[in-house]
Amino acid sequence: MNSLASSVFGIPIPVDGDEDSASGASVVAIDNKIEQAMDLVKSHLMYAVREEVEVLKEQIKELVERNSLLERENALLKSLSNNDQLSQLSSQQAAPSSASPAQPAQPNVSSA
């Protein structure tokens, strides 16, 4: 049994009286390897999160710029329009109707 565990897991398992010192050392070694693996996972996750944060910051910056541009365009269009046009636009937005023309029916062409 000892040789199977040793060959599969690479951990010597003592059988007799000196097992306390050997098992204590192997537990410490296993704990160290687990800690190293967890540190590696943590560093990879932190790197991925930092990368994603940078991408999102750039998207936010672009959206803020676009929003500012659209607000200026909206203000300009409002200043160039008269009150009748603005009230007509407001009423169209408040009561959306089927003002869009229906698409004409397409002819049914079947291949014979």
Automatic annotation (TrEMBL):
Chain intervals for the UniProt region annotation (Disordered): 86-112
Keyword list, A-Z: Coiled coil
One Pfam family named in its UniProt record: TSC22
GO biological process, one term: regulation of transcription by RNA polymerase II
InterPro entries on file: TSC22/Bun (IPR000580), TSC22/BUN_CS (IPR047862), TSC22_domain_protein_2 (IPR053049)
Family that this chain belongs to: Belongs to the TSC-22/Dip/Bun family.
Protein name as annotated: TSC22 domain family protein 2
Native source organism of the sequence: Zosterops lateralis melanops
Lineage of source species: Eukaryota, Metazoa, Chordata, Craniata, Vertebrata
